[in-house]
Amino acid sequence: MLHDPRLLVGHSTGDDAAVYQLAPDLVLVQTVDFFTPVVDDPFLFGQIAAANALSDIYAMGARPLLALNIVGFPSCLGESVLHEILRGGAEKVKEAGALLAGGHSIADEEPKYGLAVTGTARPEEIWSNAGASPGDELILTKPLGTGVFLTAYKVDLAPSTEFGRVCHSMASLNAAAAAAARKIGVSACTDITGFGLLGHAYEMAAASGVDITFFLSAIPFFPGARDLARQGLVPAGTYRNREYLAGKVELPPGVEDEVSDLLFDPQTSGGLLFAVSADRSPLLLTELKRRGIPAARIGRVEPARGLEPRLFVEC
Amino acid sequence: MEEKRVDARGKACPLPVIETKKAIESLTSGRVVTIVDNAVARDNVLKLARSLNLPVDVVTEGHNFILTITKEGARLDSAPEAETAPVAVAERSGRGTVILVLTDAIGRPVEELGRVLTKSFFYALTESTPAPAAVIFLNGGVRLTTAGSEVISSLKTLEKQGVEILSCGTCLDYLNLKDKLEVGSVSNMFTIVEKLLTAEKVITIS
Question: Are residues B65 and B105 part of one domain?
Fold first, then answer.
C-alpha cells in the first residue's frame, strides 16, 4: 500500500475512521458503515444504522459535517418502507448537526442501510486508539448486551420493555458523550461495536502498548441481557470474538458463562470507551452524568507485563 | 419415553435453540435429541438445557453434534421452585387424558350460554384431579388461548400444573391470531395426531 504522511490514521491500528491531514490545523475524518435490518420498524432501523455510522466520527474526536446514504433495497418491498428507513437516518444526521447530501442506492435482495460520513477536527483533537497510558481509567458510556437482545428479537423472545431500552440506546448518538470528553480531555477513545467490549479494548491495548484490567462488577449490562445469554441466545459473533481473543484475556475463575459472553457480545451502535487520566476521570464521569449518559468507570490501564498486551478481568 | 428429534443442521443461530426449546416445551416428559453442525449451535443448545436445569449429553459424530436433553416431568421454567414442582405435577396428572377443544362456546344453540359454560368448564378443570395430560385447541377453540379470551388465567394455572396447552398453528394462522397467543405453545397436526393416538382417553369439547 502507498504510504502518505498525510494519512494520519489508516487501518493499521484498528481505529474507527480514517484521518487525513488537509492543512496544518485541519484534518478530515472519514468512515462508512451499513448493515441489514436489526429491527422490523424501518424508521427505528434507519435511526440505529445512522447513529452507528456517525459513532465512528465521534469516537475519533471529530465533528460530522456531511453524510451520504448507502442503500440496498429489494424491488418487492414497498417504497414506504424505504422512505421510513431514510427518514430515520435523516433525523439522526440532523440531530448530529450534519448535512445529508445525497447517497446511492442499488437493488438488493435484502435491505441494507448506512451512511458514509465525513467529519473534521483540529489535529490535536483526534483521539486515536493508541493514546492510552498506564494509570488511565476506562469509562464506558452505554451498557452491553445488544447482541443477545437482537438475537432474541429475531425469534420473538426479547422481553418488550427491556428491548425498548436497548433500542433507545442503539438509536442514541454518541455526540453528547464525545462533547463531554472533549470538554474534560481524554487520552484515547474507541466505540464498542462488532468486536465487543473486550475486542475493542484489546485493539486499544495493542495500539497503546499497555495492559488493561476490568472490574467485572462495575461493567453495566442491559437489564435482561444475562437471562438471554443464559438461555443460549448468543450470536455467532460472540464465539468468534472469544476465539480471536483466546490467550489474550484472563477471566476470573468461576465467572458464569452468561457474564463472560456479554463481555464478548458484539454491539450494534454501542457506547464509547474512553481512557482518561485518573485525575480527570471523576470530572468526566460527572460531566457525562450531567448530560444524562449512563456512564460507568469499568477498568484501568496498566503497564504491559509481557511482550503482548493482555486484558485482565477482576471480580 | 417420548422422544422428539430436532434436525437443526444448516440452520443459523438462534434457530437451533428455538427449535429445541419448542420441542422441550411440547414434551411433558421425555427426550429431545437435537442435531447441529457447528460449535456455536452446540454451545447455545447446551446453555439452553442448563438454563432449564435439564440434563444434557453431547456426542460428536463427524461434523455433527448430537445433543440429548432429558426432561422428566420438570416444568419449563428455571425458577427455583421447579425443584419441588415435579412432585406436585405427578400427583395431579392423569397422564393419559387429552381434551380436544373445537369451540370457544360449549354446545348449542345458545352461544352466550356456551361462553359461560366454557369459562366454568376450564375453571372446574383447574380444580379437578387427575388433571389431563394435554388440552388441544383446534378451529374456533384457539380463540380461548389467544388475546381476549376469558379463560387465559385458568389455562395458565393448568399449564403450571404440568398440563400441556397446544394450539393448532394452521388455525391460528387462518384466524389471524398467530401473534396473539397468550398461553401454551403452537403445535402442528402431526403432534396433535400423535397425542390423540397415544392418549388413553380423549374428551372432545364442541
Answer: no
Give kind and range of the element (H or E) at residue B111.
helix B111-127
A298-311 residue pLDDT tens: 999 999 998 889 99
Same domain, A152 and A76: no
Dihedral sign, Cα of residue A266, residue A272, residue A277, residue A282: negative
Question: Residue A1 domain-assigned?
Answer: no
End-to-end CA distance of chain A: 44
pTM: 0.70
**Nearest chain B CA: its distance from A40 CA (Å):** 14
Q: How far is B151 from chain A (nearest CA, A)?
A: 24
- Nearest by CB: A232 against B12, B17, B78: B17
ipTM confidence score: 0.70
Question: Beta strand A311-314 with A210-215: parallel, antiparallel or unpaired?
Answer: parallel
pLDDT digits (tens, 9 = 90+) for B118-151: 988 998 888 887 888 899 999 999 999 998 898 9
- With CA atoms as reference, the chain A residue closest to B52 would be A231
